[in-house]
Write a structure and sequence with these properties.
Layout: E1 3-4, H1 9-17, H2 26-29, H3 31-44, E2 48-50, H4 59-73, E3 78-83, H5 89-102, E4 106-112, H6 119-128, E5 133-138, H7 152-161, E6 167-171, H8 176-184, E7 193-196, E8 203-205, E9 208-210, H9 215-227, E10 232-233, H10 241-248, E11 276-280, H11 289-300, E12 305-308, H12 320-331, E13 334-340, H13 346-358, E14 363-367, H14 388-401, E15 409-414, H15 421-434, E16 438-443, H16 447-459, E17 463-468, H17 474-483, H18 491-497, H19 502-520, E18 526-530, H20 536-546
Helix pairs in contact: 1-3, 3-4, 3-10, 4-5, 5-6, 8-9, 9-10, 11-12, 14-15, 19-20
Length: 548
């Protein structure tokens, strides 16, 4: 079974129409737009397309969606009935029965969190459709668990062993690099393997969820996934016809080598020391040895504050407040837990702040949080009682009413890489007006981000910390550029890292960070170093070489 599926219907539909209603409604309201999207993917090289029915249980929407897909496909592509996560077995069965009545013979149960609820629908298809093709694809996060908490290896083994299943797969949630790792870790399966990752990891820009336009990179990773055992390929959220076209054209699995600039030396900068904050990620298990040793090492290096991320990139880690409390108790260093709007309602937020006060934590970084793509409620997967400005205002009100006399210093984030920085700057002013006394920026890489930082310092009445992220390798730089929205490592730096041994990579990365620090030093109230991939020694080396 060798199939190349289309990419994301939903995110591509929004990009083409600016219509934020459920894309399935287009089957009835904008059939020409739906038909054109199917045809565009087929023209790009897809030989299998999904019906625009992922989230619906409405028979009329299903019937029209199936008809449009069949019309677009003609004899050029196979049509698979798309069935996304449902409430229970009865809904799965009802949708499957409707597709069977319409004459569907190929089915894709996609973005699933578990297998058992599908069985009645799978049995009905097996009983009523001769030679049916049924693909069951699971949504799995980078830690190997579905949204329902099931480990993916036994789940996929179970599905592959079913006589009602033709192929098993993974789709959504992960970008291509992480899905590649999940595929490589799979045990041998009894059925063909499908892989349809997101284009990367999204971010929210001006209220819209956006993904990288990274078709060439995506295609290279998909071909690596194919080499790892997947015979059915395609894309999920953020993937466009350009992504599918790049796969169909057989993008090279090896990046093109570009001549690198001359070696970069890293002299001692001898900058006068300003306040230094360093971000550490909490552990993904119960082992606290690393983070406590790292915090102590950074304290000895002269770091003033450890900032503790709140499940960055929406990958579950230990609670930021509990981790910060542990660090403060065991090392004595000042801490700054991040608090996102994504995971907690106003009750849980107040509870977390009250608990933080028990440990003498007196500052917090209020941020929106990276969006989550989860099957059960994929259109609005987070809590988001507040946006970041409202969260800052809420904490400021608590300072007056509840925490009077032991108020929290409130920080926020500033995206210096925002395409429309004037709007980002206006939001930053609103955050300051709401109660933020300091802002941490996203990593500074480009000349434009440095200019944006300088402008922000002129315009904002608050302390501004410059974000610095050392890149640890060529592979890391390529990943950041192609799967993490909002980060843009300059191409000359990426090129300089290619084919370099770790010692050379370290020198190039430190030199670039020092260049950025020199550019913004006079405008920065402090520096915010983001620890890459547990490389605490790299951060300590950078600090030692940069400050007198």
């Amino acid at each position: 079974m060798n199939l190349l599926f289309d990419g994301a219907f939903g995110t591509y539909y929004i990009a083409q129409t600016n219509d934020h209603e459920p894309c399935e409604c287009a089957n009835l309201n904008k059939p020409d737009a739906a038909l054109n999207i199917h045809r565009t993917y087929i023209a790009a090289g897809a030989n299998a397309i999904k019906t625009n029915t992922f989230a619906t249980t409405d028979n009329e929407v299903i019937a029209r969606g199936f008809a449009l897909a069949k019309q677009a496909a003609g004899t050029s592509a196979q049509v698979f009935a798309s069935i996304g996560p449902k409430v229970d077995s009865e809904q799965y069965l009802a949708v499957a029965e409707q597709f069977i009545k319409l004459g569907a013979t190929q089915f894709l149960f996609e973005t699933q969190a578990t297998f058992e609820p599908l069985l009645p629908a799978l049995q009905a298809i097996h009983a009523q459709v001769k030679d049916a093709t049924v693909i069951v694809s699971f949504a799995v996060s980078r830690d190997g668990f579905t949204p329902s908490g099931q480990a993916y290896k036994p789940l996929m083994t179970q599905a592959a062993a079913s006589p009602y299943v033709s192929a098993v797969g993974l789709n959504c949630v992960c970008g291509p690099a992480h899905m590649l790792e999940l595929v490589r870790q799979l045990p041998p399966l009894a059925k063909p393997l499908a892989a349809m990752p997101n284009s990367g990891y999204s971010t929210v820009v001006n209220g819209r969820t956006v993904y990288h336009n990274n078709a060439q990179y995506f295609a290279e990773k998909l071909l690596e996934i194919k080499q790892a055992g997947a015979s059915i390929l395609g894309g999920c959220c953020g993937t466009t016809p350009e992504h599918i076209k790049a796969i169909a054209m057989g993008a090279s699995t090896q990046p093109v080598k570009i001549a690198t600039p001359a070696d970069i030396s890293t002299p001692q900068l001898n900058l006068a020391r300003k306040p230094i904050a360093v971000e550490l990620d909490p552990p993904m298990d119960c082992d606290t040895d690393f983070i406590l040793q790292a915090a102590q090492q950074l304290k000895l290096a002269g770091v003033n504050t450890i900032t503790v991320a709140d499940s960055p990139m929406a990958k579950t880690r230990a609670d930021s407040f509990l981790t910060a409390a542990l660090i403060k108790r065991d090392t004595g260093i000042d801490v700054l837990p991040h608090l996102t709007c994504r995971d907690k309602n106003f009750i849980a937020i107040k509870a977390a702040l009250l608990g933080a006060g028990f440990y003498g934590i007196d500052k917090v970084l209020a941020i929106t949080g990276d969006p989550v793509v989860h099957a059960e409620n994929y259109r609005n997967p987070g809590v988001f009682n507040f946006n970041s400005k409202q969260l800052i205002g809420y904490i400021a009100n608590l300072n007056r009413e509840v925490f009077a006399g032991r108020e929290f210093a409130i920080g926020g984030a500033l995206n210096v890489n925002a395409p429309q920085f004037s709007k980002e700057l206006a939001r930053a002013k609103d955050k300051v007006a709401a109660g933020a006394s300091f802002l941490y920026t996203q990593p500074l890489f480009s000349t434009q981000s440095i200019e944006n930082f300088k402008l922000a310092k002129q315009e904002l009445d608050c302390k501004l910390f410059a974000g610095i992220l050392p890149v640890v390798s060529y592979k890391n730089a390529v990943f950041l550029n192609n799967e993490v929205a909002g980060i843009d490592v300059p191409q000359d730096v990426v090129d300089a890292l290619q084919d370099k041994a770790p010692p050379q990579t370290r020198e190039i990365s430190i030199a670039f960070c020092q260049q950025v620090m020199r550019e913004v030093y006079d405008h920065a109230d402090g520096f915010y170093f983001i620890t890459p991939m547990k490389k605490v020694d790299l951060i300590c080396d950078l600090i030692e070489r940069s400050f007198a």
